[in-house]
């Protein structure tokens, strides 16, 4: 006998709702099931398609292939673009029934869970390091010194007088 079924006052729908994991906001619902074996093996086709929109150096290793439906697989690659840490390149591949020809359906760049969260806040006093202060000192000294091309306020009149002959 099923002990959950014997509990009085608890509906079967409530039991199923408790057993199902909660969805996280912003996380896509991937269909469970085995991806199409032919499309899952087409990593080179997916990588070549992504290389069509970005340089090969910005594409990292293959992270996985996920089934999205019948004969529809999404390949994920790590992004190495500067400023896009934690993002992933994706290529959605499909094929017709009984066909061995892979078709690229969609390409793009998606954020992962790590990339859409802001880093933990650190107070300013803890962020500034001694080497940061040392770098600022020479810059401030350069800004305070007048440049060699600038003239002192009274020198402009003297320069004009030297250029004209005196009678």
Condensed summary:
29% of the residues lie in helices and 22% in strands. With 167 residues, the protein is an alpha+beta fold.
Q: Please, how many helices?
A: 6
Query: Which sequence of SSEs, written as H and E, runs from N to C?
Result: HHHEEEEHHH
Relative strand content? 15-25%
Distance between the termini: 124 Å
Main sheet overview: 4 strands, antiparallel
User: Structural class, from helix and strand content?
Assistant: alpha+beta
The strand order across the widest sheet is 1-2-3-4
DSSP strand count: 4
Low-confidence blocks of residues: none
Query: Shape, please?
Result: elongated
User: What is the mean pLDDT?
Assistant: 77
What is the helix fraction of residues, given as a range?
A: 25-40%
Evaluate the radius of gyration. 32 Å
Topology:
Blueprint: H1 12-19, H2 37-40, H3 43-51, E1 59-69, E2 72-79, E3 87-94, E4 103-111, H4 124-127, H5 130-144, H6 155-163
Antiparallel strand pairs: 1-2, 2-3, 3-4
Please tell me about this protein's structure:
The protein is α+β, with helices and mostly antiparallel strands and 167 residues long. The chain is built from six helices and four strands; from the N terminus they run αααββββααα. The protein has helices at 12-19, 37-40, 43-51, 124-127, 130-144, 155-163, and strands at 59-69, 72-79, 87-94, 103-111. The longest helix has 15 residues, at 130-144.
Key attributes of the depicted protein:
single chain; 167 residues; alpha+beta; 6 helices; 4 strands; elongated
């Amino acid at each position: 006998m099923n002990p959950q079924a014997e509990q009085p006052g608890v509906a079967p729908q409530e039991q199923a709702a408790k057993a199902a994991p909660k969805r996280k906001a912003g996380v896509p619902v991937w269909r469970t099931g085995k991806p199409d074996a032919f499309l899952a093996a087409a990593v080179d086709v997916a990588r070549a398609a992504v290389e069509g929109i970005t340089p090969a150096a910005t594409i990292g290793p293959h992270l996985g292939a996920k089934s999205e439906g019948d004969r529809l697989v999404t390949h994920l690659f790590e992004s190495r673009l500067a400023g896009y840490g934690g993002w992933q390149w994706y290529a959605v591949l499909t094929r017709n029934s009984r066909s061995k020809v892979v078709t690229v359906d969609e390409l793009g760049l998606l954020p992962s869970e790590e990339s859409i969260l802001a880093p933990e806040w650190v107070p300013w006093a803890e962020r500034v390091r001694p080497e940061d202060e040392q770098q600022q000192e020479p810059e401030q000294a350069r800004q305070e010194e007048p440049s060699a091309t600038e003239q002192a306020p009274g020198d402009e009149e003297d320069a004009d007088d030297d250029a004209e002959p005196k009678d």
